[in-house]
Amino acid sequence: MGRLFLVTLEGKIYSCKHCKTHLALCDDIVSKSFHCRHGKAYLFSKVANVTVGVKEDRMMMTGLHTVADIFCVKCGSIVGWTYETAHEKNQKYKEGKSVLERFKLSGPDGSSYWVSHEAQIIRSEQEEV
């Protein structure tokens, strides 16, 4: 399969919570106001040590986008998605940027973001209705 070469980032980094592979720098955060299935997500101008999956059109809260899931290059965990094309004019700023799900990351201080038990209960109750 070959030898795996990883980029080592310097500074305050976000890393894969499973294998600790460096994924992005704090300085490259464009927005912290994104959301995913597991809660918070951050938009980054660039990420490292990821592989890109198949492009697909997805209807998201902000409209139709062509996106591709991104995976940690070391352990293969899905860590977020990258925006290939934004079909809405006011969403074009997302093109070429990537979203990392906070739930899948360890923060610069080594902390992990966990979905709270209350959020899981609320989600379960909403699904029952």
Automatic annotation (TrEMBL):
- Database matches in InterPro entries: Yippee, Yippee/Mis18/Cereblon, Yippee_fam
Please state every residue range assigned to the domain named Yippee.
Answer: 12-109
Q: Could you give a GO molecular-function term held by this entry? A: metal ion binding
Keyword vocabulary terms for this entry:
Metal-binding, Zinc
* GO cellular component labels: ubiquitin ligase complex
PROSITE patterns referenced in this protein's UniProt entry, alphabetically = YIPPEE (PS51792)
Q: Would you say which domain of life the source belongs to?
A: Eukaryota
Its family remark reads: Belongs to the yippee family.
* UniProt name for this protein: Protein yippee-like
